[in-house]
Amino acid sequence: MEIVAFGVQADERPYLEKAFAGRHQVRSLDVFLNRDTAPIARGYEIVSSSVNADLGADVLQALAAGGTKLIAQRSTGFNNIDLEAAADLGMSIGRVSCYSPYAVAEFAWALALAVNRRIVRATTRTRNFDFRLDGLMGRDLRGRTAGVLGTGRIGEAFTRIAHGFGMNLLGWDLAENPRCVELGMRYVPRERLLAEADLITLHLPLVDGTRRIVDAAALAAMKDDAILVNSSRGGLIDTEALVDTLKAGRLTGVGLDVYEEEARFFFVDKSLDVIDDDTLARLMTFGNVLVTSHQAYFTEDAVGQIVAATVANVEDHLAHRTNENMLVTRGQLPAAAR
């Protein structure tokens, strides 16, 4: 069987094609799946999508009309998928329920350290043979407080690194993670975490209850010299409120690997285009802000695990089996999702 895979990055392609070798043929495309590209999938029973795919009801209807029965998304988050529409169409939807949490946690730390120690500014200067230290002073993190919003696998991995730095640990989640508690984490109300933490990191899913959880009020509650890192989902932060906060001269640094409207920009070359997103353009002007293009997950280890899970989802679908990755199975939503 031939599978069409959308949004395949150049470095990801050999992993995907090697994993399916001897099983199925893969047509790897660098374009993303949306209403404009959905017709490409006509005639393919199995479609694999990437994290920034648009899988709203209209796209799903187009795919179903073209014969698609399984969408195997190569990511954990599924806020971009209309699961009820997929169920009504009798489709199956699979995802990657987990992969290396260390990939994302380590990258979140890379962002935190880079903005704390002004690494990007320093590198730009030294490339121009400017070796002054003016404006490059950072802070020791030992003895300061890390606030972790979301203490699942990735949040726990971030916490372990913070513990290694000798930081005080505050956490907020629906349920306490006993392994984080063993490291010395104290679970506190979100308002207290925001007010006391020197470094705040987000590791939450994007659902109705977390959308723009970092809004103007949350930003106002933070210390003026706090560091904010988001390597989870762009929609967790009200970006316009963040820009206003930065314009007021608050926050020591911000590290973002995700952005609310990233589907329009990330993973493609926009260097020759006029950027019509005023919020993103303004965000890029702040010297204490570092924005990367949703690459926290992008390690050999994590991509290998993502591809392996995608293969398993395809094989289980063809064998009429289900697994923990399936969000919709032949039109049936899990009881918890109904």
Automatic annotation (TrEMBL):
Record-linked CDD domains: LDH_like_2
GO molecular function: D-lactate dehydrogenase (NAD+) activity
Primary enzyme class: oxidoreductase
S-adenosyl-L-homocysteine hydrolase NAD binding domain ranges (all copies): 116-291
Stored Pfam families: 2-Hacid_dh (PF00389), 2-Hacid_dh_C (PF02826)
Annotated EC: 1.1.1.28
Keyword annotations from UniProtKB, A to Z: NAD, Oxidoreductase
Assigned protein family: Belongs to the D-isomer specific 2-hydroxyacid dehydrogenase family.
Protein name, per record: 2-hydroxyacid dehydrogenase
Organism expressing this protein natively: Streptomyces mooreae
